[in-house]
Structure formats: structure tokens, C-alpha cells
Design a protein that fits this description.
The protein is an alpha+beta fold and about 130 residues long. The chain has helices at about 25-30, 45-55, 95-110, and strands spanning about 1-5, 10-15, 60-65, 65-75, 80-85, 115-120. It has one domain: Aminopeptidase (3-Layer(aba) Sandwich).
């Protein structure tokens, strides 16, 4: 588990693997992003399949029991794919994005994957 924090606000967060019961909290996090377009993989059934088939490749960041960021990942036999990293606006700039990306990389390494690929949709880019 990766931990960090934002000292000025005394808020600490931790990174952990995503679980199926995280759906509601993740969805609430995603709903805070103006204009975010979510793919079928983000809906409950798709998420269940992703987590079941790609266990320990997707992650959440929690702060005070609330999901404030997600990293959705998948893989084929050779490569790991970071499909999206979403951080609630009020938690950006605290290093959560980097910590989630590093957790994804470690998950790929642990799964024996030799490549990491990251993509984003221009319509969803907020940086």
C-alpha cells in the first residue's frame, strides 16, 4: 500500500487494489469530473469482469474512507495498459496521480508483463 498526503489540509490518502465493492465510491468520484465520458468498462458489469480477469492491476486512492481517485488498467499477454487515471479535482496536485501510476507499473511487473502503455482521450484530458 502506498501512502502520502497533503500536509496543508492534513489529509492523508492511501493507494490499494480496486475491489468490486468499490464501484459506488468510484462512480461518485467519477461523477465529480465535469464532462467526463465513461466507457462501458466503467459500468458495474464491465468493472466486475475487469477486476475478476485482471486482479491487482486497477487501484483506488482513499482519503478518510472515501474513494478520491481511480486507476483502471488491463493487460494482454505482454503489455499492461493504463486505460485511465481519474483524480477528484480537489485532490489533484498531491502526488496521487504519480502514486497510482507507480502502483500500476508495480502491478504489471508483478504480473510478469514486459511493457507498459498509457493512453488518454483528448476529450477527457484535464491537464
Amino acid at each position: 500500500m502506498i501512502e502520502g498526503g497533503y500536509t496543508a489540509a492534513a489529509l492523508t490518502w492511501k493507494i490499494r487494489p480496486m475491489r468490486l465493492n468499490d464501484y459506488e465510491g468510484a462512480f461518485q468520484c467519477w461523477a465529480r469530473i465535469a464532462g467526463l465520458k465513461m466507457s462501458e468498462a466503467n459500468f458495474r458489469t464491465g468493472l466486475a469482469v475487469l477486476i475478476e480477469q485482471q486482479a491487482r492491476l486497477s487501484f483506488v486512492a482513499e482519503c478518510r474512507g472515501e474513494i478520491v481517485a481511480t486507476a483502471m488498467c488491463g493487460s494482454d499477454e505482454k503489455s499492461g495498459y493504463v486505460n485511465q487515471i481519474i483524480v477528484a479535482p480537489e485532490f489533484r496536485g498531491q502526488g496521487i496521480e504519480q502514486a497510482l501510476f507507480e502502483a500500476c507499473q508495480q502491478g504489471f511487473f508483478d504480473a510478469g508483463l514486459t511493457e507498459c502503455r498509457f493512453g488518454y482521450g483528448r476529450e477527457n484530458a484535464t491537464w
